[in-house]
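Fill in residues.
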């Protein structure tokens, strides 16, 4: 007679079968729910009126407040009450100019492309003028350097103009020798001048260059409007030139910063070349010049006309007096390494005769220097 199986084994077998059936039913139910949910969402989106909020928007995490003029990138959903303005509503100042050197015709301030300049971290300081590292030796070397032209220019313009009151205005000389091509560019109405200033109302040089057909852009933070076209060839921009871009957080709050590096402005304006760069920056010129050297912007400039100030070290220049003068001298030697040659020097006797806050070396507190890029075509 066959032996009967224990009762507990039969119960266990049936329990396993029941569990498997329940799991299969649960999995099938979940799959059907997913399918129905997906189909319902598709139908709801098809029925939803244009511009209505998606379901659950009220429970979504709060988004940051959108600032005027700041628009999210394509593909990002906007909350109720916000919309993207049409492209035609964005106002943009434009000007007419002839394309030059392969440049396309662009407006005043179009978005620029990426820069391909090679950045450096610091300039190479020149050896000390003497082992003693004395101020006398450094100052004499520097003053001799800025007082001695390196090349001659036979056609200087302008050499100084008389105002209505009879006083002599500052000379801002450029070299029009044929070998440097600037005269040819002016004759063909293809030259471009950037003028960097800080509230200086002396604009006779800019007006003269604009009247000769040069495309002139004057940058000054004291200008009331962002971009003003004064005449056919003259534009004023409410921008100050700095040696660094503003911190991104600050720039966002200001929407469009009025302080930018020259290289940044060149990219934004779509300008690849500047025939003449004039700068009167009230002691900011040393750090600006350093930035132009470190970021390789000098290769895009034909001639430099800078007013330099010697009555104090300048913005963000530290160290003792000897180190300051060595830094000044090293900056100017960097220009020489970039094939810029000094062709004009002017000692302003109308300014206080101070050198680092002292009456020393028969030096003026202000000089105007002009260089030409020997590789400019």
């Amino acid at each position: 007679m066959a032996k009967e199986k224990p009762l507990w084994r039969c119960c266990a077998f049936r329990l396993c079968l029941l569990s498997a059936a329940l799991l299969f039913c649960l999995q099938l139910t979940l799959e059907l729910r997913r399918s129905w949910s997906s189909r319902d969402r598709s139908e709801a989106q098809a029925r939803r009126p244009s511009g209505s909020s998606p379901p659950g928007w009220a429970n979504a995490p709060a988004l940051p407040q959108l600032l005027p003029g700041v628009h999210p990138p394509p593909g990002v959903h906007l909350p109720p009450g916000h919309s993207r303005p049409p492209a035609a509503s964005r106002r943009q100042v434009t000007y007419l100019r002839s394309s030059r050197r392969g440049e396309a015709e662009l407006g005043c301030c179009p978005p620029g492309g990426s820069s391909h300049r090679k950045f450096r971290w610091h300039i190479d300081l020149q050896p000390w003028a003497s082992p003693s590292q004395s101020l006398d030796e450094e100052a004499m070397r520097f003053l001799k350097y800025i007082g001695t032209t390196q090349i001659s220019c036979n056609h200087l313009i302008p050499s100084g103009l008389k105002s209505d009151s009879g006083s002599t205005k500052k000379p801002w000389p450029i070299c029009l020798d044929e070998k440097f091509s600037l005269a040819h560019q002016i004759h063909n109405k293809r030259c471009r001048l950037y003028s960097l200033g800080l509230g200086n109302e002396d604009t006779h040089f800019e007006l003269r260059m604009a009247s000769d057909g040069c495309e002139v852009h004057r940058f000054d933070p004291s200008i009331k409007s962002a971009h003003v076209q004064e005449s056919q060839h003259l534009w004023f921009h409410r921008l100050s030139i700095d040696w660094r871009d503003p911190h991104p957080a600050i720039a966002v709050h200001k929407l469009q910063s009025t302080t930018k590096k020259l290289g940044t402005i060149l990219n934004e304006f779509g300008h690849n070349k500047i025939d003449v760069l004039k700068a009167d920056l009230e002691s900011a010129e040393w750090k600006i010049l350093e930035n132009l050297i470190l970021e390789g912007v000098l290769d895009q400039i034909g001639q430099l006309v800078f007013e330099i100030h010697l009555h104090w070290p300048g913005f963000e220049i530290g160290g003792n007096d000897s180190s300051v003068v060595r830094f000044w001298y090293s900056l100017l030697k960097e220009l020489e390494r970039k094939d810029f040659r000094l062709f004009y020097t002017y000692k302003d006797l109308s300014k206080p005769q101070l050198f680092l806050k002292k009456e020393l070396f028969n030096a003026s507190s202000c000089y105007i220097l002009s260089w030409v890029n020997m590789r400019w075509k």
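Residues 7-47 form the longest helix (41 residues).
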